[in-house]
């Protein structure tokens, strides 16, 4: 009996270990492909930035057009944005049966919105723009770091990434209750992208933010970024009617006003991504966060004529370091010296003197940060902070950008130190020593972050000093992961609630729900390997070249070990290919692989889904995401169509980079040849078709 029990125990442990290994491999595939996609987006953006830096427009009109195209959102000044997104001029038709909003908002409005969205109704564009206008006005008055106290509510609930999955938000509210004076929420960024209901999530969160401004707090995530939205679907999803362009423009501006972090009881720091060894909360508190519409567009500030002013604020003298240029620089933007204050007995004269002195200081600060008089706005919280701290340090835009990039894009790692996050392409990896240093410096207990999907919805690391919380369940595939939120009371002890929002997950039996059931693993595993095979097929040409490097005699066969090495050298996914081989390659008796027939099998699998030539299909699979992003960048008004003018100016940018001489008539002939239906615009299918024709002609 004992021998039988031990035998069963060994069998069971091997079985569980194999299931866990399959689960981890599946997870690794999903995560590697996701991060590779993010890296592609950053590379694509860097490519366009390089083109912009090395392109010389032939006219001011050309310069303005391209600047508007690639710096979308930054070109709108305050008054222009208000005029462009004028919601008051919109009429709501009598046939509209959806929810209606009136301001100031009441809890009944939020309840009506939730019920309407459950019934798949949409909010009229007039109300959406009105809501965004009021949200932007409120966010501008908030500090960069929100402060929350558990003294005023029973507990604070912290939610992680939602990524457009409205069902998860509904389930959180069902389990935990709606925001109220006694129930505070912190939503830690990444509200949008990937999911199909990003706009609805924004509407719900912004509504509760305006109803309960002291109980609802929103942090910015790395996906609250226009350049990221271009790739991951939010821009396409939000553009649902004729006013979609205005809604997107307003949302871009709202995103840049979102606070960067939240502090609970001065002890728990909540940020979206992470920290670095240079993270400075004092700097983050004073940055003008609205300057960074896209964190991916980190521009170096022009400092040639600003060094003197910066050093003067710091109490330093530039004359000794650079006597030749000091006088010229000082004359550009001298700090105003206040006149002698009049006697306080004459209150009217003294008040006039105070207003004049403050106005002079404001104008000097505007010139210092390159704000022209035409861009004059109301004072915001961050600008007031910067004005009241003129004796403090003044940072360059590059330093400010680095601070925001790190807290939005960074990930923890088990090893000590801090290094560049080459997997994502942005931010850094920070180790336990960096966490300890930052926590001790600011007298914090622990750090809450999101940004990474976790199988259980949450995960501790760095000796339980860093907590990752992720609230989008079934993120990669139904059953791939749970969502979770964390509740903190006055004792700041975290209490977790896990869930799975998808209806298919609810149909599982109790036995299936225990652990990670075999059927569920098989389903998720199948989805992961399908995505991986698509990735392999998309790099067929590169794989053939890599395989031939090991096939010196041109036999068409290589060892399985060489196969694994070659695949990693092409895809750079960091996957355990030898472990994954049984799922990707048929077993061979002699340990050799006929790589050409293997690639043919991959092509056959993809061709069964798409009736397109194999070599062309490879190109489309490899470049479709980039082509979609490029299409959206060129289509700056988000109409779903590229106008002839947009194509004309973009082609001049590309031809300049590639040293191709092409006349305006030649460009016009080219764009007309792509416009197959002759409607005067290029849609996405025509855009892809042009690449297909070029590939076939080659």
Automatic annotation (TrEMBL):
Q: Which domain of life is it from?
A: Eukaryota
What this protein needs as a cofactor is: Mn(2+)
| A family per Pfam | Metallophos
Which keywords label this protein? Answer: Calcium, Hydrolase, Manganese, Metal-binding, Protein phosphatase, Repeat, Sensory transduction, Vision
> EC number(s) in its UniProt entry?
3.1.3.16
GO BP of this protein = detection of stimulus involved in sensory perception; negative regulation of MAPK cascade; visual perception
A single GO molecular function term of this UniProt record = Hsp90 protein binding
Q: Which residues form the EF-hand domain?
A: 538-573, 622-657, 662-697
InterPro entries reported for this sequence: Calcineurin-like_PHP, EF-hand-dom_pair, EF_Hand_1_Ca_BS, EF_hand_dom, IQ_motif_EF-hand-BS, Metallo-depent_PP-like, PPP_dom, PPP_phosphatase
Q: Which reaction does it catalyse?
A: O-phospho-L-seryl-[protein] + H2O = L-seryl-[protein] + phosphate; O-phospho-L-threonyl-[protein] + H2O = L-threonyl-[protein] + phosphate
Task performed by this protein: May play a role in phototransduction. May dephosphorylate photoactivated rhodopsin. May function as a calcium sensing regulator of ionic currents, energy production or synaptic transmission.
What's the family? Belongs to the PPP phosphatase family.
- What protein name does the entry list? Serine/threonine-protein phosphatase
Gene name in the database record? Ppef2
């Amino acid at each position: 009996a004992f021998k039988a029990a031990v035998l069963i125990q060994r069998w069971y442990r091997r079985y569980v270990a194999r299931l866990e290994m399959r689960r981890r491999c599946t997870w690794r595939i999903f995560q590697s492909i996701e991060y590779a996609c993010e890296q592609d987006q950053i590379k694509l953006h860097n490519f366009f930035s390089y083109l912009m830096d090395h392109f010389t427009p032939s006219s001011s009109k050309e310069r303005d057009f391209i600047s508007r195209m690639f710096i979308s959102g930054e070109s709108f000044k305050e008054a222009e944005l208000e005029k462009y997104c004028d919601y008051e001029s919109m009429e709501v038709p009598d046939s509209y049966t959806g929810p209606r909003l009136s301001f100031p908002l009441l809890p009944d409005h939020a309840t009506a919105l939730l019920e309407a969205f459950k019934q798949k109704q949409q909010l009229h564009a007039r109300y959406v723009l009105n809501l965004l206008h009021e949200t932007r006005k409120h966010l501008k008055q908030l500090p960069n770091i929100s402060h929350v106290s558990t003294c005023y509510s029973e507990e604070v609930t912290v939610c992680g990434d939602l990524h457009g999955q409205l069902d998860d938000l509904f389930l959180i509210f069902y389990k935990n209750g709606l925001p109220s004076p006694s129930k505070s929420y912190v939503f830690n960024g990444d509200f949008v992208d990937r999911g199909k209901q990003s706009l609805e999530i924004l509407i719900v969160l912004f509504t509760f933010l305006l109803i309960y401004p002291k109980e609802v707090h929103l942090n910015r995530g790395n996906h609250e970024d226009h350049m990221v939205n271009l790739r991951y679907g939010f821009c396409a999803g939000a553009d649902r009617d004729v006013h979609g362009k205005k809604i997107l423009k307003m949302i871009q501006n709202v995103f840049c006003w979102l606070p960067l972090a939240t502090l609970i009881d001065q002890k728990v720091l909540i940020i979206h991504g992470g920290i670095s060894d240079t993270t400075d909360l004092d700097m983050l508190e004073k940055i003008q966060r609205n300057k960074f519409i896209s964190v991916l567009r980190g521009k170096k500030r022009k400092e040639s004529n600003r060094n003197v002013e910066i050093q003067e604020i710091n109490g330093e003298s530039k004359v000794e370091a650079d006597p030749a240029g000091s006088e010229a620089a000082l004359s550009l933007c001298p700090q105003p010296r206040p006149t002698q204050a009049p006697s306080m007995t004459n209150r009217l004269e003294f008040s006039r003197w105070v207003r004049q002195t403050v106005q002079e200081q404001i104008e000097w600060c505007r010139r210092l940060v390159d704000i022209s008089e035409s861009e004059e706005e109301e004072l915001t919280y961050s600008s007031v902070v910067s004005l009241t701290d003129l004796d403090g340090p003044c940072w360059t835009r590059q330093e400010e950008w680095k601070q925001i990039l790190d807290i939005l894009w960074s990930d923890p790692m088990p090893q000590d130190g801090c290094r560049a996050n080459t997997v994502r392409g942005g931010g850094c990896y920070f180790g336990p020593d960096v966490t300890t240093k930052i926590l001790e410096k600011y007298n914090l207990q622990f750090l809450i972050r999101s940004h990474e999907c976790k199988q259980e919805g949450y995960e501790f690391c760095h000796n339980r000093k860093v907590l990752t919380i992720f609230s989008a369940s079934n993120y990669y595939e139904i059953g791939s992961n749970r969502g979770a939120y964390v509740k903190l009371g006055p004792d700041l002890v975290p209490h977790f609630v896990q869930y799975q929002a998808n209806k298919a997950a609810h149909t599982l039996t109790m036995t299936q729900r225990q652990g990670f059931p075999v059927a569920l693993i098989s389903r998720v595993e199948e989805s992961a390997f399908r995505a991986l095979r698509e990735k392999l097929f998309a790099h067929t040409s590169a794989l053939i070249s890599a395989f031939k490097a090991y096939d010196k005699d041109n036999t068409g066969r290589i060892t399985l070990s060489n196969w694994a090495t070659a695949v990693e050298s092409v895809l750079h996914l960091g996957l355990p290919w030898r472990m994954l081989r049984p799922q990707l390659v048929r077993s061979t008796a002699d340990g050799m692989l006929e790589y050409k027939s293997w690639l043919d099998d991959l092509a056959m699998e993809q061709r069964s889904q798409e009736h397109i030539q194999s070599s062309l299909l490879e190109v489309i699979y490899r470049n479709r995401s980039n082509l979609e992003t490029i299409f959206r960048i060129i289509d700056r008004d988000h109409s779903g169509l590229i106008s002839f003018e947009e194509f004309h100016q973009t082609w001049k940018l590309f031809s300049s980079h590639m040293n191709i001489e092409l006349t305006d008539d030649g460009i016009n002939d080219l764009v007309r040849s792509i416009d197959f239906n002759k409607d005067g615009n290029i849609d996405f299918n025509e855009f892809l078709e042009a690449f297909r024709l070029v590939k076939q002609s080659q």
